[in-house]
Amino acid sequence: MTAAGLEGHGTSGVPTLGALTAGQLVRLCDVAGLGLADAYAYATVLIEALGPVAERPLNLPPVYRTYLSDDHTPVEYSLSFLPDGAPALRVLLEPGYPAGGRMDRNGRAGLRLMRDMAQRWNVTTDPLDELEDLFFPPNPQGPLALLCALELRPGGVPRVKVYLNPAARGEERSAETVAEALRRLGHRRASASLPAADGYPFLALDLGDWESPRVKVYLRHDGLAAEEAPALCRMDPGPGPAELEEFVRTATGLDADSSRTGGTTARLTGRPVLTCHSFTGTDGDGPGGFTLHVPVRDYARHDEEAMARAVTLLGRYGMDPAPLLRAAAAVTSRRLEDGVGLIAYLALAHQHGRPPRVTAYVSAEAYEVRPPLGLRPARVATAGGR
């Protein structure tokens, strides 16, 4: 790929999906401290993964309404921050997107692409193969089949992670599917350690060259109150309760006086908070990692407000916010106050033996910018417990 190739247009002269997202990725690689050769190599991987839809002009609608993003762009980015050094850049994509919205075709196409990429990078797909019948049944249900995250590293070989849909055999069987997947992967008592949840949106697998490959279970928590967040953590030892509650408050804009008023509790009624519980081969019965994912885009009026919260959180953990500010400019030229959703999630991750990480998820916005919210973020105060 050449620099000129990143400016590609369709036959109509309109920018294409591949040109837009590849250009964004090259600029984000610069933010993350990756060299130009690596940036072009990863942009080429992205265009190849998009297949024929890479050449689709952006004046045409998305191929289908992918679950991956609000505007149905099949690509999302994230930057994961630590106190020292450049952030780790990841690109999340839907490998079966070119096959459209039929989940059986989408899933099979995604599996083929994942195995092709794994072969290219000498990555084993054994954990994924072990679970194929659970997550790719003949008539899959749910809004997605397979997502893939690539953590981009110097040298052009990424770390690979796949996200699977526990509701593929039916929403009512999600917990059963997760428990069976954990059992097959050697975590026989792991499901018993998980907190109560309102849904199971993902099960994720680290494939290949990870220091400690993880199996990660994502849980959905509808109508969560900030003070309930600490009880969702099952790490031992884990982060302190005050840290988790304060992260939710800061990310959502809840102030300290709004959580309890006259015996009522403020609950988040927009998009729900997610938790992620990670297990490795060295864990005991419980998880060795815990992450809070807060959908900041539903609790901020616009992205300038969301960015301010992200900067506050990064500063609290001794992390430089400058790369995130540069990342926003690398993805869009619009003013932050002119939309909401560029920053989709803010996440706090704890893992045994490692310092905390703060991750910001950044939307590509290829098709649409969500207008600013005219009202205060959606919240409701309800008496008593959940």
Describe the structure.
By secondary structure, this protein is α+β, with helices and mostly antiparallel strands. It has nine helices and 13 strands. It has helices spanning 17-31, 36-50, 103-120, 126-130, 132-135, 174-184, 241-252, 303-316, 322-331; strands at 75-81, 88-93, 146-152, 159-164, 199-207, 215-221, 260-261, 264-268, 273-279, 289-294, 343-351, 357-363, 379-383. A hairpin with a 2-residue loop joins strand 7 and strand 8 (264-268). Helix 1 (17-31) runs antiparallel to helix 2, helix 1 packs antiparallel against helix 9 and helix 7 runs antiparallel to helix 8 (303-316). The radius of gyration is 20 Å and the shape is globular.
Write the layout of secondary structure elements.
Elements: H1 17-31, H2 36-50, E1 75-81, E2 88-93, H3 103-120, H4 126-130, H5 132-135, E3 146-152, E4 159-164, H6 174-184, E5 199-207, E6 215-221, H7 241-252, E7 260-261, E8 264-268, E9 273-279, E10 289-294, H8 303-316, H9 322-331, E11 343-351, E12 357-363, E13 379-383
Antiparallel strand pairs: 1-2, 1-12, 2-3, 3-4, 4-5, 5-6, 6-9, 7-8, 8-13, 9-10, 10-11, 11-12
Helix pairs in contact: 1-2, 1-9, 7-8
